[in-house]
Amino acid sequence: MHVVIFESNRWSVFAPLCLNRPVFMLSTGMSTLLDKQIRYLGATRVSFWVRPELVDFCKVRVIPQLKIPATVNEPINDEPALLVNGRTLFFRTIEPPPEEGVVMDEPNLVRLAYVKNRAGISVDDVMQRTQRWTDLLELPKMEIGSRLAESLADLISWNEESLIEDSTQLLKVAKKPKLAGPFYLVNEDDVWIGKDVNICSGVVLDASLGSIVLAEGVSVGANSVIQGPCYIGPHTQIRALSIIKDGTTIGRLCKIGGEIVNTIMLGHSNKSHDGFLGHSYVGKWVNFGAGTQTGNLKSTYGEVRIQYAGHEQPTGRQFFGSVVGDHAKTAIGTRLMPGSYIGFCSTLAGSTIPPRFIPSFTFWTDKGMEPYKADKVRAVMQAVYARRDLRWTDADDRMIAQVMKTAPEVEK
Predict the structure, then answer these.
(1) Using an 8 Å Cβ cutoff, are 64 and 22 in contact?
(2) I want to staple 210 with a disulfide (CB 3.0 to 4.6 A). Which of 36, 56, 69, 228 is the partner?
(3) What is the band of 328 on the pLDDT scale with cuts at 50, 70, 90?
């Protein structure tokens, strides 16, 4: 099946996490939205329709990791194709329908469309809502089991279900390891430990409410508690006395301490010290200073809203923490209020409670906000990469340039 995964013009509600990546590359459970789309749709080849500024990202960071043929921003031909909104989350295998049809959310929003003999439809039709695209709205309506994420709040809320489903699908053919050591297991059959994992004494792995997966090379410090469902990515370090609670996904090569609950943290990010992180979505290369806390419940117990520059976006949730863009940093003792927006490559270095909206490329102190200049941004990023023995590339330079251009338009 030829699967076309497209970004709609509403991708910006997933900022700051999608300033530098397509929506379908957001993580949920043990994998990305893209991984699930390919898995459950039985894709034999895939086409990506993305913003022009992300073509480079797809060619450099996405396609080389795939096991099936892929193209970027090429129109479809006459062959049958399944067009899928990149925000779609699947929990089960979907069989292609026998005839053309469309799944819609709202009167004019396509979640999924199965088309035949529609050569020439392209990413421009999606973004500009041309006649060729709106014609799809008149196709016979279908019902296909899936969900369309409206915001990062949805991915956070659905993460526990995603973890359970991923563990069911991805681990069903895995060989169950033999477990032994000076640690305590609850519901041992749902604890999965990868190769070269080190678990220190006094650790509690409680899988009574869902699977715990410790990927290859994970280390768990003494007297830590991990509650499922939970996924800890390859070579991540869990410091001693940490508490990792249900609904949490932590990416590869992270350093984690303190308490985390119902949070998605992408790879290479550090929260090494004490402090609470709850109901939040955290990008790559983020560093939380010691004692950083994220509030996730208002004192009124009302709905949390995410603060943007000129408006607030409802989350529909009583519990919601912060959204933190890639390369953001907080100083020691930083306190983030519920619904905080911390932009791409921003630094919080003040002694008081920061504003709930920090734009991308901002340096905030007690004196207020000032721009974080491109040359300084690049120097700090290169230093961070060097600490992980990674090489700075031209693709990284292009990424900074495109986010610097895109972020002001989205965050205004």
Answers:
(1) no
(2) 228
(3) very high
- Distance, CA of 350 to CA of 368 (rounded, Å): 8
| Residues 253, 266 contacting (CB under 8 angstroms) | no
**Two structure tokens written together for 394:** 């031209």
Q: Do the Cβ atoms of 230 and 248 come closer than 8 Å?
A: yes
Q: Is residue 177's pLDDT more than 70?
A: no
CB 323 within 8 A of CB 315: no
Q: Per-residue pLDDT tens for 244-260?
A: 999 999 999 999 999 99
Per the omega criterion (within 30 degrees of 0), is the bond before 229 cis?
yes
* Calpha distance 290→282 (Å, rounded): 16
Q: Which domains does the chain have, with CATH numbers?
A: 2-149 (3.90.550.10), 155-411 (2.160.10.10)
pLDDT in tens, 92-116: 999 888 899 999 987 788 999 999 9
Instruction: Return the sign of the alpha-carbon dihedral for residues 120, 46, 281, 255.
Output: negative
Determine the pLDDT at residue 289. 97
Strand 219-220 relative to strand 237-238: parallel, antiparallel, unpaired?
parallel
